[in-house]
From TrEMBL:
Keywords: Hydrolase, Magnesium, Metal-binding. This is Trehalose 6-phosphate phosphatase. It comes from the Bacteria. GO terms for molecular function: metal ion binding; trehalose-phosphatase activity. It comes from Ammonifex thiophilus. Its EC number is 3.1.3.12. Belongs to the trehalose phosphatase family. SUPFAM superfamilies: HAD-like. It catalyses: alpha,alpha-trehalose 6-phosphate + H2O = alpha,alpha-trehalose + phosphate. One of its GO terms (biological process) is trehalose biosynthetic process. It is an enzyme of class 3 (hydrolase). Removes the phosphate from trehalose 6-phosphate to produce free trehalose.
Length: 275
């Protein structure tokens, strides 16, 4: 992998370099040039919610439009493409039923599938599963009768959504949920996201997921696109590996490059697909 151009520290104003207006959105010409330079040796890694599609009121509403599906299909024919999501693997694959996508990481990396390889899954011990089920029951009872909350059991991860809940009530529920998690699952991680609180097994994060994917893509330059705190480990890892980190949106963790939101990502990828 030729990463000499990335081995030096980027200037502080690098992430604010101007882009050309394309389709009403600024396209980062410096980022586009860097991605195009690596062509067939490029590994594009995308978070889904908030990066490829806008955040929706509830998870089931954040479905891709056909333009995005066609775009990812075209990208997958030209580059290696992987989706790294907090969603269950089967759910994200149902949203994006594309054989052209080379790699998948679901539940923040608790499930990983690479083309031509067997599925890898985190193994919950019987004790962990029992405690997780008890915690799930506690959360369900905590939310009973409360409006605007959604509790997701992803098998390996529990997610407490509160986007539609009253702000003050959400604050109370989050504090109660955190305290309960420390009792039921003291070794598990508590990860805040955009109007969601997630509970994950130790060692499961998108940085570890990307490391597993990179182990299957020797010689490729990784470029990771992510929008919230859950993407921070992946962005850090990719940049430590002399890859390209792209922060998406106003709440994204720091990275060498920044895009305004999913539409800016789409315009960049449309340009990347052009001959």
């Amino acid at each position: 992998m030729d990463s000499r151009h990335l081995g030096q520290k980027l200037p502080q104003n690098h992430a604010r370099a101007p882009g050309r207006v394309f389709g009403g959105h600024a396209v980062r010409e410096d980022l586009l040039d860097l991605l195009q330079k690596h062509n067939a040796r490029l590994l594009l890694l995308f978070d889904y919610d908030g990066t490829l599609v806008p955040i929706a009121p509830t998870p089931d509403k954040a479905r891709p439009d056909q333009e995005l599906v066609r775009l990812l299909k075209a990208l997958g024919r030209r580059y290696r493409v992987a989706i790294v999501s907090g969603r269950r693997l089967e759910e994200i694959q149902a949203f994006l039923p594309l054989s052209e996508i080379w790699g998948w990481a679901g539940c923040h990396g608790a499930e990983i599938k690479v083309a031509g390889k067997e599925l890898w899954r985190y193994s919950l011990s019987s004790e962990e599963k029992a405690l997780k089920d008890k915690f799930h029951l506690y959360l369900a009872q905590l939310l009973a009768g409360r409006k605007g909350f959604l509790l997701e059991d992803k098998g390996f991860v529990l997610a407490l959504h509160y986007r539609l809940a009253d702000k003050e009530e959400a604050k109370i529920v989050k504090e109660e949920a955190r305290r309960a998690a420390e009792t039921f699952l003291p070794r598990w991680q508590i990860r805040p996201g955009k109007k969601v609180l997630e509970f994950l097994p130790p060692g499961i994060n998108k940085g570890a997921a990307v490391a597993r994917l990179l182990a299957e893509a020797q010689g490729f330059l990784p470029a990771y696109f992510g929008d919230d705190a859950g993407d921070a480990p992946a962005l850090r890892l990719v940049e430590e590996k002399a890859g390209i980190g792209v922060a998406v949106g106003s709440q994204a963790p720091p990275a060498s490059f920044k895009l305004a939101g999913p539409e800016a990502v789409r315009q960049l990828l449309l340009r990347l697909c052009q001959p």
